[in-house]
Fold this sequence. Notes:
By secondary structure, the chain is mostly beta strands.
Amino acid sequence: MAPGSVAGPRSPAMLLILALAMLLGLGLPGGRLARANIGSVPLAMVRAPLPLDRADAALAMVNMRERGAVAITRRPDTSFVRIESMQASMAHAVDERLGAYFDTAAAVSEAALTAGTSDLPPGFALRALVCDSGEVALLAGYPQAMYLLRPQGPHQVHTFLQPVEVLLAFCLNAATHRILVRDGGTLLLLAFSPSPSISFLDLGGMSVVPGMRAARGYGTSVHLWNRTHYHHGQLVVSIFSGFAGSFPGPVALPGLVDMAVTRARAGSQGDLLILRDDGDRWVLCGPPSPGAEPTLLGCLELAALVEVGAQRRGHFLAVGPAESHDPVPVAYFVPDAGAPLRVALLDVPATVRPLVMPPPEPGAPAEEFRLLGLVPAYGAPVAWTLAGRHVYLEAGGFCAGDPTVECADPSAVDPPARGWRCAPGRAVAYFRTGSLPRLCDACAAGFGRAEAPDPRPPPVPLPPLPLPLPVPPSLDVSIIGAGSMDTLAAAAAMCSPCDDTGACLSCLEGNCMACREPDLLLVDPGSGLGRCVGACPAGYLPEGGLCMEGAAEAAMRMAAQADRLTGLPAEDQVQALGATWLQVSDAAGGLFLPPAAGAAGIPFDPAAKRSTFLGFRPPGRAPVYLRHSGPAAVAAIPLAPGGPFDAGWDVRAYVELGAPAGVLPSGHLALVGLVCLPTGVGVLKFECAPGAGPWPDPNQPCPAAASLTMLPGMPCGSARQLDARSVGTQAPMAGPADGVHAGGLVRLGPDGSPQAAGQPPGAGLPAVVPAPADGAFLLQTPAGRADLLPMGLAMSRSAGSGGLPFPAAVHTGGASGTGPHFEALHLPTPWRGATHPGEVFLSRLRHPPGGGHSVWEALHLPAGMMPHGRTDGLAPLASQVARLPDLSGHTGAAGPRAVVLATGSPQLPGFLALLSPGRVDMAPVRCYGPAGAGHCLLRPAAGVHLPAPGLAWPERVALLPGFAQPAAGPGTAALPAVRAGARAPSHPATSETFTFLAVLDGAAVWRVDLTMEACPAGGAPPACLPCHEACVGCSGPAADQCLACRHFLPDAPGACLASCPEGLFPDPAGDGACRCHVSCAACSPAAPGGGAFACTACADGHAPTGVPGDAECAACHGACLACSRPGDPAACTACPPGTLLHEGACVGSCPPGTWARGSECWPCGPACAQCDPAGRCVQCDDGFFVYISGACRPCDASCQGCLHGAGCVACRPGLVFLSADPQQPSLCGGTCAPGEYVGAGRCAACDGSSLGLGIGLGLLVVLLLAAGLAILLVSWNRRRRLDRWAKTDRDAIALEAMAASGH
C-alpha cells in the first residue's frame, strides 16, 4: 500500500486481519497447522571478549537500515551527543570473533542537547529516530514535552497538558518524523513535517490502556496490541479531519503475550510473530508453509516449550522491516527467566533450539538481550547478532579450525568463564589478519615466541572496497584491510615457556626481557642475555625490575659550546626551524626542487637536508632560507613574496616529507611540507612548476610550484616527524602544567594526499612502531595508559573520540607528583633484522609534591611488542633517568620535550634527549652482546646548561650536516657513527660531539656543540667531580646520586655508606654489603636506639664469648661441631660426623651400658649391663634376668642368680636347690620336702629300712599332713611372688617406653 493512501474495506490489510481472526480467534478445523520442532541438541553460545559498554557510556542503541547498529553517546564535558556506527572489529583488521565496538570514525552525525542556547534540563529519555533515507535525529522525551533534535536545522518542541507515554517513534526522511503517544485513553500522533502537528487515532473500539505496545511495519504500517486485541493500519496524517491513520476493526486475541514484526521471507512487507498464552499451550504465528497464501501466516503450536523450561512470559527479538531490506529468517524468544531460545522461522516445521549461555559474569546484573546489526568489514552485509553487554556467537563457528582456542562442553562442571579459553601458553591477539583463523595467536605471560615455518601464503593487498560509511575520501583502505601483523602472527605460531622456573615474564628468542616480581632482570654484558635473579649481585643496584649496572660502567659528562650565528640581521627573529630539501635562488629568493627529484622519487642526500633550513619569522615577515656557511655563520636569504609560504602565517613548526615514490606517472610530485599553525595544519605539495612542463633535466633544479590544503580543526603548536609518511601534532595548553590538550596525526596516503586523525585529549606525542613486513602501529599515550593500534585504526579516530575497548599495551598509572602524560619514542635498531626492529620508550618529566626538583622518568619496552607477539599487557622496565632542577614552571611551547637521537651504532644505537629551557640532558641507550644483538638498556643521563636561555621544543632545533647515517631510519635525528675501537663493548666512546642549530635567547639562531665523554673512574657528571665517599660511580657528587654503593646495609641497599657501622663488617664477597661478623649468624644494635651491633646468635662451631655486647663469637674446641662454651672439649652440644656425643664429649663409640641413638649415646635400660644397637638389653646386672621384652627383671629372693623367674642358677648362702633333679629349674629353700634330705647343695630322696613299720606308717601320715600344709603355704607364697614379678614386668615395660620416647 502506498504511503498516504487510505485502505478500503477490501484492502490487503483487511484480508490479513480476517485471516488472523479465522486462524486465531475461531480456530482451525482438525487442529493447528504444525507443531514446532524442539531441537534435541542445545545450541552452545560463547561470549566475545570485547565489551559493548564504553567508559563514556552509550545512552541508546538502535539498528540503522543497511548500516547496522548505531550508538548514541555523550561527548565528554560537552552538551553534544554523537551518533556512532557499531563496527565489528574486523573493519580494522581484527578477528571478528572479538565482538564489536563503537567506531567514532564512522560517526553518522552529531546533535546538541540544547534548547535554544541552554542545555536541556535532566530527566529526559533519549531515543534515536532512524529515517528510511539514512538520516538520524534524536528525540528527548519528558513526561509532558518532546524535543526533536536534528543534526542540521532547528530543534523543535511540543508540550502536552498531562504526562504521555511514547509507544513508537520513527521518521521517513529528514523532514518527516512520527511519534505515537498514549495520552490517557487516547492515541495521538505527533508529526513533525516539518512543523509539529497533533492528530487522533480511531482504533474502532480497541481499548487504549496502559501496557499497550506498538511496532512499525513497512513504510507507514503500524501494528498495535494489548493483552486482548490486535490492530493493524497505516499512519497517515489528515490535515482536514484531525484524524490520522486507516485502521479496520481489531482482532480479538485473548491471552496475547508478545508480538514482533519481522521480514522472514524475501518480498514480504512484514511477517508477524505472535506469542499467545492459550491455556497450557503457546501459539507462535510466523511465516507460512511452502505453497501457502502469501498474505496469510501459518501458526505453530509450541506447547513443548514447557518441556525445555521456558517461562510463560517473555518477549521476542526480531529484525523489523524498517531495519533491514534483506530477509532475516531467525528470531529469538527471551523468557523472563532462563536462557533465550533460537527460532529458525523458515524451517518446516520451525526449529526451536534452547541456547546454552556461558556462566554469567561475577557480580554483573542480568543480561538484557537485543539483536544488533554489525558490519564485519567495510562493504560487507550486516550480520545480525545476539548481544547483551557483549556479543554472543555460536560456539561451533567460534572454535572450528582454530587450534589456539578451546571451547568446553556446555555441560561441564566448571566451564570457561566466556564459554571458551585460549590454549595453554596463548593469549588473545587483538590485531590479526592472517589467512588462518587464530584468535589466540599471541603468547601469554611467561611464554615467548618460538620460530616456526609460516604455512601461509604471502599477504595479498586488498583492492579498494566501496565505503558505505562516511569516511575521508583519501582513507588508506589498503592499510585498514590488509592489517599489520601477518608476519608477526606467523612468527608467533609457537609459544614456548620462557624458562623452567616461571620467573621470566616475557622473552624473545630465548632471551628474557622482563621478570615477575619480586625477581629482577640481570643482563650479562658479554652475551647480552637476560636472566631472572632474586637479588642483584655485586656492582648492580635494583631499579624498576632491573639490576642496573653501577661501578662497572663509567659515567658520562657533557660539555657545551654555543655561538650566535652571524649573517642574520639583528632585528630578524626566528621562531621555528625546519630542515628542507628545497633550494633557493640567491638573487630572487625563488624556490627550486633539487636535482634528481623527478627521476627517482626522492633519493636526496640526507646530508644536504641537514645543511639547509627554513627559518620562520613572526607574522608579517616572509620566511628566510638559511644555509650554514661556516663554523659560526649562516647565509640568510629572504624568500620572494608570493611564494608558497604566506607571510601572514604564524608558523610554529615545519616538517618536510618526501612524496611516495611513483605516486604520479610524471613524477612531478616531489615534496610534501606540513606547516604547523595555531588555526590548523597546512599541507604544501611541491611539484615541478607547470610552466616548465615535464622535468626538463633531472640533473638540474626545477622551479617549485606548491598547492596548499588546509586541515582545519587541528590546532598545532608542535610537530614531529614519526616516520616517512606520518607527522604528529600538538597544541600546548595555555595555563595548567599538565601537558597538552589537543593532538593530531597527519599521514600521507598512497597518492600523497594527506589524511588527518585526532588523538586522545591530553596525550603526549605518539610514536610509530614498525611491525615486521606488515606495516606499522601507532603508540599513543592517553591518560593512565599507552595503546598500540594498527595505523589504519589509529587514522580512523576523530578528534575527541572516546576510548576503544581494547586492553592497554601498558598501564602507566598515576605516579605521585604532577606533570604531563608520557610521550612515546621509538629508537630503530635495523641491524637486528625484522624480528627486533627497535626499542620503545615512554618518557615524561614528573614534578614531585613540594617542588624543589623534577624527575625524568622512562618506561622501556624491550623490543616493543615482539616478545609476546601481542599489543597488550606488555612488561616495561621502569627507570629514573635523571634528577633535574625544578622545571614545573615551564609549560606550553617552552616546556621540556624528549626526542630520539639515533647514531646507527650497534653498541650505542642512540640517545634519549630532553630539551629544556637553557638545558639539554641526554641518556645513552646501550646494546650488549655480539654486535649489539642482545639486550638494549637505557642508562642514566648526563646534562649541561647552555650559555644562552630559551631552548624549547624540538621544532626549534635542527642537526647540522655530517651526522647522518643510513641506518638511522625516518623520524629520528641522526648522529655520527661511533668510532671503532674507542671503547669497550659496554662503554661509551671516549668523546662524541653533536652539532645543532637552535633558536636560543628568545629568537636568535645559535650553533650549539654538545660533547659527550666518559668520566674518569670515580667521576660524576656533568663536570666529572669526585663522587661522594659513599659512592662507587655516580651521576652527581651527592650521596643520593651513587650508581653503586661503597658500603650499604642489606635491608637498605639504596642508602650508601662510606664505612660499615661498628659491629658490622664488609661482606667478603666484595659487594659492599655490611654484614655480621662471620662468626655470627645474626646481630642487631646492642641498644634499642641504635649504636654498635652485637651478636645475637652464633654461627656453627662458635659460642658466645660471655662478654656483653661482643660483636664476635669464639670458636668451639676442635673436637666439637657446636658447643656451649668455647674451647672446652667437655662442653660440646653437637659432634662432627663419625663421632657421638656422650656426656658433653665427642667419642668414637658408645661405652658399655649405653647405645648409639642418632648422633648421641643413650644409657641402656634399668639394671642392664649391656644392650644391643636397638637398645634391647642382652646382659643384666646380678640378681636380674632378661625378660622376653628385652628388659631386666629381678630374680626370686632365694636366687643368687637366675635365668628366668622360676629357675635359679645359684642359691643364696644357706639355701639349697629344692629340686632333687639337677636337670629341672628350681628355686632355693632352707628345708627339703618330706622324704628328702639336704644333700650337697640340693635336696635328695631318703633311702628305705626295716625299722618299725608302724612307726614308718605313723610318720607317713604325719608327713602327708605336713606336706599338705606345706603345699598350701608354697602355693600361697608362689602366688605372692608371681604378683610381684608381674608388677616388676609392668614397671620394666614402662621404663622401656619412656626410654624409647626420649624421656
